[in-house]
Design brief:
The protein is α/β, with parallel strands linked by helices. The protein has helices at 19-26, 63-74, 95-101, 120-127, 145-157, 168-172, 205-223, 225-229, 238-242; strands at 2-7, 31-36, 49-50, 60-61, 82-92, 106-110, 132-136, 190-191, 194-195. Strands 2-1-6-5-7 form a five-stranded parallel beta sheet. It has a two-stranded antiparallel sheet with strand order 3-4. The chain binds S-adenosylmethionine. S-adenosylmethionine is lined by residues 86-89, 111-113, 115-116, 136-138, 140-145, 148. S-adenosylmethionine binds next to strand 5 and helix 5.
Length: 243
């Protein structure tokens, strides 16, 4: 997969080259390119923003600069690209979104700042039949799209084949079966007077699987009842319902 990020703060994306993601880049599983939006400005001040039509506080990112930047970055590679515009006003980014994007050959992220990017940049791309997603990473407002990109890229890249040492761990993660994952324990058996649940030390794999499933159901019911309510009809079997 090729990932391009356009931003006025390229340094913000440095963590993408650390740890698991850095290894994925080193192994050739991901090509990453970070571009400075200001290199597509034409004025001496390298301005990327202007005051909003209709008045109001803050500044809006200028469409000319973004249009030229996106055209140039898209032309860098022949692979079809999905353009991603982080915005609190977008559709929620979820594990399902991350999973779906693993099927893309190329993702191009456009990091907004200030009051965001002039809407015509997205409208123009859609008019040219380019796939564009406006997505939010949660119901809160960040200063810029860079942190949202770090979140989304990490969620996608760890799902790519060959990135996780043990792919089974992603299959057991929260959200993969629609539930939150239950608690996990490691050595020692007793720590500060707290013992690891007996069943996990029993060696009985069927009982362990049942216990884990019950804890996942319990935790999801307590913390995210919305996830339980959204499960498809056939997601729960009789043993689940008996819990
Ligand atoms: N005026 C915008 C609004 O209320 O919808 C908020 C703009 S925010 C201060 C500046 C930039 O931060 C956005 O263009 C977007 O790139 C990014 N951003 C902020 N919160 C975000 C979120 N929850 N998810 C994704 N991106 C976000």
């Amino acid at each position: 997969m090729r990932i391009d990020v356009i931003t006025i703060f390229p340094g913000y994306l440095a963590p993408l080259r650390e740890a698991l993601l850095g290894r994925a880049i080193g192994a050739g599983l991901v090509d990453l390119a970070v571009h400075d939006l200001r290199s597509w400005t034409r004025d001496v001040h390298q301005a990327v923003d202007d005051s909003p039509y209709g008045g109001g506080p803050g500044m809006v990112m200028r469409p000319q600069v973004w249009g030229e930047a996106l055209d140039a970055v898209l032309a860098l590679d022949e692979r079809p690209a999905r353009i991603v515009v982080p915005t609190p006003a977008g559709r929620p980014f979820t594990q399902a979104t991350a999973q779906a994007w693993t099927g893309e050959e190329r993702l191009v992220f456009a990091c907004g700042r200030y009051e965001g990017i002039d809407q015509r940049v997205v409208d123009d791309a859609r008019r040219r039949d380019l796939p564009v997603d406006e997505v939010s990473i949660g119901d809160y407002v960040l200063v810029g799209g860079e942190v949202a990109v770090l979140v989304m890229v990490e969620a996608v890249v760890r799902l790519l084949p060959g990135v996780l040492g043990n792919p089974a761990s992603a299959q057991q993660d929260s959200f993969s079966d629609g539930l939150l994952e239950g608690p996990a324990y490691t050595r020692p058996e007793v720590w500060r007077g707290l013992a690891v649940p007996e069943v996990l030390r029993s060696g009985n794999h069927a009982k362990i699987a049942r216990w884990r499933r019950d804890r996942a159901l319990e935790r999801t019911a307590q913390r995210r009842p919305d996830l339980l309510a959204a499960l498809p009809e056939d997601a729960l079997d009789d043993a689940d319902r008996a819990f």
